[in-house]
Every structure is written in C-alpha cells, then in structure tokens.
C-alpha cells in the first residue's frame, strides 16, 4: 500500500510561528479525522473550531478532492462537503417516533384558524 504525501503551505509546522499556537490537528492522532462513527466525526469537527487555518485546510481538501475525512471542521466525502455522516447499515424501515418528530415541520394552520 502506498500513500501520497502533499506539502500544504501553512500546515507543515506543529505550531504557528508568530503566535506559538498549537494546531488542533497536531494534538491528536490523525485517525481522529478519519473516524467511522458519526459521534467520532462530530468530535473531530469540534476540534477544528477556532483553528486559525480552518478555511485554508478545507479549501485545500476541496482542491485536492480528498476522498474522505474531516478537513477544516467539515466532513468531506468524495471531494464534497456533507453535513453529517450516516451510521453504518440500512436506514430503519419504520423510523422511531422521536426521529420523525425531529424532521417533521409543524402543519400549516387551517384556513378557519387564521381568521381568528
């Protein structure tokens, strides 16, 4: 198995020279940003909050069409930002009531009720 290494200007050092600030991605294992479970992906995204290179990291990943991972606080799959990682397996055939309630918008008011 081979790996391609990219030199990403601004991300090579473990800290920013001007401030000495440590980058979050250099404080944890790299596998953190390639997690399988949705909860672990959300944890990786949270690590990126406040990183001074967040925008550059995401832009670089999109330019390189990264196959997957958390880059710049966003989940990238097949070179595209996706809002969240789906859990493994098939979706439920009949969703649980709490899942339905979370995704269902309130019904519009009936015509008779609006006049009141």
Automatic annotation (TrEMBL):
[4Fe-4S] cluster binds at residues 25, 48, 51, 57. GO terms for molecular function: 4 iron, 4 sulfur cluster binding; dinitrosyl-iron complex binding; DNA binding; metal ion binding; protein-disulfide reductase [NAD(P)H] activity. The Fe-S cluster can be nitrosylated by nitric oxide (NO). Its cofactor is [4Fe-4S] cluster. It holds the Pfam family Whib. Transmembrane segments: none annotated. Binds 1 [4Fe-4S] cluster per subunit. Following nitrosylation of the [4Fe-4S] cluster binds 1 [4Fe-8(NO)] cluster per subunit. Residues 83-95 have a biased composition (Basic residues). Residues 24-81 form the 4Fe-4S Wbl-type domain. One of its GO terms (cellular component) is cytoplasm. One of its GO terms (biological process) is negative regulation of DNA-templated transcription. Its main location: cytoplasm. It is found in: Cytoplasm. Keywords: 4Fe-4S, Cytoplasm, Disulfide bond, DNA-binding, Iron, Iron-sulfur, Metal-binding, Transcription, Transcription regulation. Residues 83-116 are annotated as: Disordered. Acts as a transcriptional regulator. Probably redox-responsive. The apo- but not holo-form probably binds DNA. Belongs to the WhiB family. This is Transcriptional regulator WhiB. It comes from Desertihabitans brevis. The gene is whiB.
């Amino acid at each position: 198995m081979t790996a391609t290494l990219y030199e990403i200007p601004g991300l090579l050092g473990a800290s920013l020279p001007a401030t000495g600030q440590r980058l979050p991605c250099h404080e944890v294992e790299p596998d953190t940003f390639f997690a399988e479970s949705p909860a672990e992906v959300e944890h990786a995204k949270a690590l990126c909050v406040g990183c001074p290179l967040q925008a550059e990291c995401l832009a670089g990943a999109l330019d390189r069409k990264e196959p997957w991972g958390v880059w710049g606080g966003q989940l990238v799959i097949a070179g595209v930002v996706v809002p969240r990682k789906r859990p493994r397996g098939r979706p439920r055939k009949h969703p649980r009531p709490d899942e339905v309630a979370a995704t269902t918008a309130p019904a519009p008011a009936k015509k008779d009720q609006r006049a009141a």
